[in-house]
Amino acid sequence: MAKQNYFQRTGRRKTAVAQVRLVPGGEAIVVNGIPYEELFPRLVHRQAIMMPLVVTENVGKYSVTVKVNGGGITGQSGAISMGIARALVEADESLRPALRQNGLLTRDARAKERKKPGLKRARKAPQYTKR
Fold first, then answer.
1. In 3D, which of 5, 69, 72, 41 has the Cα closest to residue 83?
2. What predicted TM-score, i.e. pTM, was given to this entire model?
3. Is residue 109 a part of any domain in this protein?
4. Which of 9, 18, 64, 73 is most deeply packed, by most CB within 10 A?
């Protein structure tokens, strides 16, 4: 069987799921068939996506293809970041300490808290009236 020439991993954040494929060579980052600059207009989201590549000094060494669905743009950018970090570790195990030190391999478990019965939201109670 032929050796695969790419590294694929999944990243998750809130309800967003990103399937990331890293191919050595090239430097394009394509998300759902669209360049990531067009899909993520805010600089904060673009920086989050690039963070694993910047931390490991691999900018321009890999071409990244992503399929992402669910969640909003912040959750999607976080999921893409985690997917890229996991794929980089699969490509080169020596990058793990740098990625772990910057918190890029840790799943952010925060999610929206469910609404409780008798309350207006998860914790907001109806206004109390004494008389």
1. 69
2. 0.89
3. no
4. 18
Determine, yes or no, domain membership for 93.
yes
Structure-token pair, residue 58? 């691999």
Among the listed residues 89, 115, 112, the one whose alpha carbon sits nearest the alpha carbon of residue 102? 89
Distance between CA 15 and CA 19 in Å, rounded? 13
Cα-trace Rg, the chain: 19
Q: Which DSSP state fits 30?
A: E
Asked if pLDDT for residue 3 goes beyond 90, the answer is: no
User: Does 107 fall in a domain?
Assistant: no
Four-point Cα dihedral 85, 89, 92, 95, nearest 10: 70
Polymer length of the chain: 131
Angle of the 43-55 helix axis to the 73-91 helix axis, nearest 10: 10
Give the domain range for residue 46.
Answer: 7-101
68-102, pLDDT tens digit by residue?
A: 999 999 999 999 999 999 999 999 999 999 999 99
Q: What is the CATH number of the domain that holds 32?
A: 3.30.230.10
Q: Hey, what are 25's tokens? A: 């060579």
Q: Say if CB 54 and CB 102 are below 8 A apart.
A: no
